[in-house]
């Protein structure tokens, strides 16, 4: 059973030869290929080589497109700073007001160099791993695209105090996100991981969800041409699963490390896939022995759950994560299933 067969069997709730697992090693490929991040996040071949190295080193069951949402901000005109140890950061947004946002030209999916970088990386990965490894296309939801163009503070001010302005921005972002997500699917992404940060009541007030962010999220998932994994970003999802499970075209949920998998399954029922719940960005702080114990506890908790994928949550694993620590996750999956047969 190869990774594609294993993942699709998990989605269907069928028997697998071992538990599928996924780690967000988008950034980590640069370490394995000794590639400077400025080049890694600009050259599609360099990125694809990094993910190929990830696959060869750790054999994860899914690979991910460039996890560099700031590239979308750049496509709209925002300016970023490239860093030595992390993905680029937004430093100068393209717009600070509703009108200046609406005056921006929507980037051409077939011509903008920052968008073409991501699209070509997916094409390369899909070509190299066709029929073997599913490729996840990382996609911000409309309410998470807006701060990449405006900055977090300006977007929050609009979201909280200008309902009509927020709706106009969300309409523009929703249209773009649907087109962008479907372009990634056409390029070879198997499914999409859609963030939900600014639809989360731990980040924004509950009052803005029903009339603004949740409708935009529903319109987006409904407009995409493949199933979606809703990703919590840096927020917990468990407390809102009763709302999120009603969204169209959502295959499953990538939960935060602080979420309870058992409670999530109870809230969702048996049909959705659950992914989680290793703390990806902080995994480097754990020893291999601690990682093995954590993985064992998670796998034992989900031993009777056929629709579960062991996965990291939040952002990328840090470049500082020792290879041995990541290998401990791999060995935990293999050892657990060997013991469980």
Topology:
Layout: H1 3-12, E1 21-22, H2 28-32, H3 37-40, H4 44-58, E2 63-64, H5 70-76, E3 79-81, E4 89-92, H6 98-103, H7 113-128, E5 135-139, H8 142-150, H9 152-161, H10 163-187, E6 191-195, H11 209-223, E7 228-231, H12 241-244, E8 250-254, H13 261-268, E9 273-279, H14 288-301, E10 308-313, H15 323-340
Parallel strand pairs: 1-10, 2-5, 5-6, 6-7, 7-8, 8-9, 9-10
Antiparallel strand pairs: 3-4
Helix pairs in contact: 4-7, 5-7, 5-8, 8-9, 8-10, 9-10, 10-11, 14-15
Keywords for this structure?
341 residues, alpha/beta, TIM Barrel, 8-stranded parallel β-sheet, 49% helix, globular
In whole angstroms, the N-to-C terminal distance is 16 Å
By DSSP (H or I, 4+ residues per run), the number of helices equals: 15
Largest sheet strand order: 1-10-9-8-7-6-5-2
Quickly name the level 1 CATH class: Alpha Beta
Rough outline: globular
Strand fraction equals 5-15%
What is the CATH fold-level name?
TIM Barrel
Backbone CA Rg: 19 Å
- Helix-and-strand structural type: alpha/beta
User: How many beta-strand runs?
Assistant: 10
DSSP helix fraction: 40-55%
Uncertain regions: pLDDT < 50 for 5+ in a row?
none
Largest sheet, in brief, is:
8 strands, parallel
- Count of domain modules: 1
Mean pLDDT: 96
CATH architecture: Alpha-Beta Barrel
SSE order, as H and E?
A: HEHHHEHEEHHEHHHEHEHEHEHEH
């Amino acid at each position: 059973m190869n990774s594609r067969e294993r993942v699709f069997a998990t989605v269907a709730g069928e028997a697998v030869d071992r538990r599928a697992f996924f780690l967000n090693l988008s950034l980590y490929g640069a370490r394995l290929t000794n590639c400077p991040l400025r080049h890694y996040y600009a050259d599609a071949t360099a990125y694809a080589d990094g993910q190929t190295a990830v696959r060869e080193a750790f054999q994860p069951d899914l690979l991910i497109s460039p996890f560099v949402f700031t590239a979308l901000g750049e496509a709209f005109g925002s300016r970023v700073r490239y860093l030595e140890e992390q993905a680029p950061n937004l430093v100068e947004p393209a717009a600070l007001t509703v009108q200046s946002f609406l005056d921006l030209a929507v980037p051409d999916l077939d011509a903008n160099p920052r968008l073409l970088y991501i699209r070509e990386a997916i094409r390369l990965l899909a070509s190299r791993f066709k029929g073997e490894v599913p490729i996840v296309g990382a996609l911000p939801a409309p309410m998470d695209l807006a701060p990449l163009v405006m900055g977090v503070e300006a977007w929050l001010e609009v979201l909280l105090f200008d309902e009509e302005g927020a709706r106009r921005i969300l309409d523009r972002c929703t249209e773009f996100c649907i087109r962008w997500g479907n372009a990634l699917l056409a390029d070879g992404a198997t499914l999409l991981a859609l963030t939900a940060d600014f639809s989360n009541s731990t980040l924004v007030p509950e009052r803005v969800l029903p009339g603004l962010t949740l409708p935009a999220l529903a319109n987006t998932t409904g407009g995409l041409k493949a199933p979606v994994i809703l990703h919590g970003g840096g927020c917990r999802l468990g407390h809102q699963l009763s709302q999120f499970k009603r969204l169209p075209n959502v295959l499953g949920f990538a939960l935060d490390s602080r979420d309870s998998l058992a409670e999530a399954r109870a809230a969702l029922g048996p049909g959705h896939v659950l992914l989680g719940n290793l703390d990806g960005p902080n995994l480097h702080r754990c020893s291999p022995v601690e990682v093995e114990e954590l993985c064992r506890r998670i796998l034992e908790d989900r031993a009777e759950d056929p629709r579960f994928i062991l996965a990291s949550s939040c952002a990328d694993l840090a470049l500082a994560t020792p290879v041995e620590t990541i290998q401990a996750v791999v060995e935990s999956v293999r050892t657990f299933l060997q013991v469980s047969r």
